């Protein structure tokens, strides 16, 4: 029979090894996504500047949150929203380690990111829009958080390039229009990816 101490030693080693596996998985994903959506290039294309207040929805582990917070600096702020509490806890730890004090996390609802009203110079998201199940309702709930003329930026797999179930049969341009938004810029980032800058439609 296996001795108690051996059993606990095995459990301990397995938990360390699987923990490292997770660590490597998210790092590899982040490296790949950064290679096709380079944060500096994206931030230059959308005009992120010192002092801005940015609401990032679906921030996940903070792949974009950290570069955004570094760029807006101490006079700016990033509200990092997600529906996964554990991702936000991880993101907070990363910000603390990086010495970034201008990030506030917001646990949102599926159809509402819950950003403070009238607070944002820009709303931003990367690799999230295709996952949002009620995009028109979500966008309509996001709009009151924008300051006048502030854009919503969506970086994602180009429509049709994502085969996830949640993305099949969707027509993004129609969703944007139904939410009262118009496309002011559309930029291809990579074979797979696209960037949209949206503003409230003037009609
Ligand atoms: C593929 S990850 C992208 C994470 C990060 N933006 C990045 O580029 O690495 C998608 C994220 O969107 C979040 N998400 C999905 N639906 C959401 C919703 N309705 N509101 C807020 N976040 C959502 C998920 O929890 C997940 O963290």
Verbal overview:
This protein is an alpha/beta fold. It has a single domain, classed as Vaccinia Virus protein VP39 (Rossmann fold, 3-Layer(aba) Sandwich). It has helices at residues 4-36, 39-46, 65-72, 85-98, 135-142, 172-178, and strands at residues 53-56, 77-82, 103-107, 122-126, 152-157, 181-188, 193-200. The protein has a seven-stranded mixed β-sheet, sandwiched between helices. Strand 2 (77-82), helix 4 (85-98) and strand 3 (103-107) form a beta-alpha-beta unit. The longest helix has 33 residues, at 4-36. It is globular. The structure holds S-adenosylmethionine. Residues 33, 57-60, 63-64, 81-84, 87, 108, 110, 126-128, 131-132, 138 line the site of S-adenosylmethionine. S-adenosylmethionine binds at residues 33, 57-60, 63-64, 81-84, 87, 108, 110, 126-128, 131-132, 138.
What's the number of helices?
6
What is the rounded Rg? 19 Å
Helicity range: 25-40%
CATH class: Alpha Beta
Number of strands: 7
Indicate the overall shape: globular
Instruction: Tell me what portion of residues adopts beta-strand conformation.
Output: 15-25%
Low-confidence stretches: 15-21
CATH topology: the name is Rossmann fold
Query: Oligomerization state of this entry?
Result: single chain
Quick one: biggest sheet?
A: 7 strands, mixed
Spatial sequence of strands, sheet with the most strands: 3-2-1-4-5-7-6
Tell me the span between the first and last alpha carbons. Answer: 77 Å
CATH superfamily: Vaccinia Virus protein VP39
């Amino acid at each position: 029979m296996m001795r108690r101490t051996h059993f606990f030693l095995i459990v301990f080693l397995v938990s360390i090894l699987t923990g490292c596996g997770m660590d490597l998985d998210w790092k590899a994903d982040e490296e790949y996504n950064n290679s096709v959506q380079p944060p500096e290039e994206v931030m230059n294309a959308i005009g992120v500047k010192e002092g801005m207040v940015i609401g990032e929805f679906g921030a996940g582990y903070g792949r974009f949150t950290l570069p955004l917070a570094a760029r807006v600096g101490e006079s700016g702020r990033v509200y990092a929203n997600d529906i996964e509490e554990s991702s936000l806890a991880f993101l907070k730890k990363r910000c603390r380690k990086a010495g970034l004090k201008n990030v506030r996390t917001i646990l949102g609802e599926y159809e509402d990111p819950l950003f403070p009203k009238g607070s944002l110079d820009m709303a931003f998201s990367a690799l999230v829009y295709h996952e949002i199940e009620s995009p028109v309702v979500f966008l309509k709930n996001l709009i009151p958080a924008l300051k006048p003329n502030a854009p919503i930026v969506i970086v994602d797999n180009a429509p049709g390039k994502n085969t996830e179930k949640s993305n099949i049969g969707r027509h993004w341009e129609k969703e944007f229009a139904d939410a009262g938004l118009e496309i002011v810029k559309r930029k291809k980032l990579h074979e797979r990816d696209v960037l949209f800058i949206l503003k409230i439609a003037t009609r």
